[in-house]
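Exercise: predict the fold of this chain.
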Amino acid sequence: MAKAFDTSLLHPRNWFTWLGLGVLWLMVQLPYPLLYLIGSTLGRASRPFLKRREKIASRNIDLCFPEMDAAAKEKLIEQNFISLGMGLIETGMAWFWSDARVKKWFDVEGYANLTNALAEKKGVMVVGVHFMSLELGGRAMGLCRPMMATYRPHNSKMMEWVQTKGRLRSNKAMIDRRNLRGLVSALKQGEAVWFAPDQDYGRKGSTFAPFFNVPQAATTNGTYVLSRLSGADLLSITMVRKANRKGYSLHISELMTDYPVDDEFKAASYMNKVIEKEILRAPEQYLWVHRRFKTRPLGEASLY
């Protein structure tokens, strides 16, 4: 449940942010095809102003797909910035659209996989991937089946309230990703808990395992630890944007019945393969602007 509104959030220092949110609210009242055009245009226009992010995306793509030719790489980066612009619009859609309007624009594949897993009362770890449409994907997941999600609290008290209120429109609770006890407790109570292990969270609590063509990528052991402590089932849920402004598809996988539970390296390698498969559904929509390989084994030079 979202916290009650605190009037201190109306302090003048927040007025510019409130104005921006107001503009976003007004914008997402427009028809979806027009929102697609606006988001795509914003994404393309942002590229010259986000050179550092462009450089990171370029390096990540080189590392993951070394055989990709220059023309294909340029097209992927261009489409990735389009997805970045759409991500802003999709955040507004996730936070401000009605349930009926969200439902109109997505379909679901594999819903029975989730309901059957929850019926076992063992809890379900929902493995997610950082696509640009992540906020909207969370809203869509909750409309299928309200669940809980791990997250990093926002540094801004105001944005923490706004994003939590938006995310809880269709879900049960947000759990700080550092709250191991809370996560295990929710899973043992039979809840579905979303967790995204595809980013670089630093050396602590990570194992170096292969990811695409990078032989040693710092991969969180969170999935492995939560699985061992809770005994929960695992499956993945990802949402990708369809081509030609046709909306979105939510993909729910079958249970991961062969997930390694006795070795951290094997578990991390397995999970990275799962994530690779999901990314390849729509590589242009993935968050390539994140420094996925910033943490290196001791003594190894930075890849950036």
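Check your answer against the key: Residues 100-285 form one domain.
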